[in-house]
């Protein structure tokens, strides 16, 4: 991960997903059914995308050795919730590669252990049932996650509210606008607390 990307991640981590959504006209926000699996999870990074058959994680095992620091692994698991695509061991493998989060349109398991790792994992459901490992799957293709299309290299930001997807071509504008939104809201809060705004 370059110094420039590290700086982008730092700046993105200082704005709320709601502020990013506001400046993107409320578009690009992942459906709320894909939620953080432990309280306080937060991340910002670039998408590595995976499309997999429902309940099957072979392609996830295939992609993990290629992950780079700052990556977010984005998995379209067909919205299936009957079998977990990721558990503690698969999560820790990604974390040790420098991956900053998994975003899964599907299910996971081992939520307490993943929380103990403090590794951000967002998913549609939790189930103890394990996956198959037969395939098929694809790596590096546009995928749909919670009603939003994510292309490889897009930026994702997650916090307790949910996830925003920023197309890579729009990053500079969206980030600058979100920072202005954050500053405006901070001033509004000061005005409220100073009694300058009618409550």
Concise synopsis of the structure shown:
The protein has 6 helices and 11 strands. The chain is α/β, with parallel strands linked by helices and 199 residues long.
Q: Tell me, rounded to a whole number, the average pLDDT.
A: 96
| Total of domains | 1
Strand content: 25-35%
Q: What gap, in angstroms, lies between the N and C termini?
A: 46 Å
What does the radius of gyration come to? 17 Å
Largest sheet: 9 strands, mixed
Describe this structure in words.
There is one protein chain. With 199 residues, this protein is an alpha/beta fold. The protein has a single domain, classed as Ribonuclease E inhibitor RraA/RraA-like (Glucose Oxidase, domain 1), CATH 3.50.30. It contains six helices and eleven strands. Helix 4 links the parallel strand 4 and strand 5. Pfam families: RraA-like.
SSE arrangement:
Elements: H1 3-13, H2 17-23, E1 35-36, E2 43-52, H3 58-63, E3 71-76, E4 84-86, H4 88-96, E5 101-108, H5 111-117, E6 121-126, E7 137-139, E8 143-145, E9 148-150, E10 155-159, E11 162-166, H6 171-193
Parallel strand pairs: 2-3, 3-5, 4-5, 5-6
Antiparallel strand pairs: 1-6, 2-7, 2-10, 8-9, 10-11
Binding site for Mg(2+): 110
Pfam family, one: RraA-like
Keywords: Magnesium, Metal-binding
Label this structure with key terms.
single chain, 199 residues, alpha/beta, Glucose Oxidase, domain 1, 9-stranded mixed sheet, 11 strands, 32% helix
């Amino acid at each position: 991960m370059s110094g420039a990307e590290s700086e982008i991640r730092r700046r993105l981590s200082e704005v709320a997903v709601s502020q990013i959504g506001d400046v993107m006209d409320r578009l690009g926000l992942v459906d709320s059914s894909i939620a953080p699996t432990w309280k306080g999870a937060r991340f910002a990074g670039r998408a590595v995308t995976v499309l997999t058959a429902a309940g099957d994680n072979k392609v996830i095992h295939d992609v993990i050795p290629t992950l780079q620091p700052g990556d977010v692994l984005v998995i379209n698991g067909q919205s299936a919730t009957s079998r977990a695509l990721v558990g503690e061991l698969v999560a820790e493998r990604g974390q040790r590669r420098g991956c900053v989060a998994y975003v899964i349109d599907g299910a996971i398991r081992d939520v307490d252990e993943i929380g103990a790792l403090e590794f951000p994992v967002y998913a549609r459901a939790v189930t103890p049932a394990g996956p198959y490992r037969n395939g098929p799957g694809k790596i590096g293709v546009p995928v749909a996650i919670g009603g939003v299309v994510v292309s490889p290299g897009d930026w994702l930001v997650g916090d307790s509210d949910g996830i925003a997807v920023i197309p890579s071509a729009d990053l500079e504008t969206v980030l600058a606008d979100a920072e202005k939104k954050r500053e405006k809201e901070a001033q509004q809060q000061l005005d409220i607390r100073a009694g300058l705004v009618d409550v």
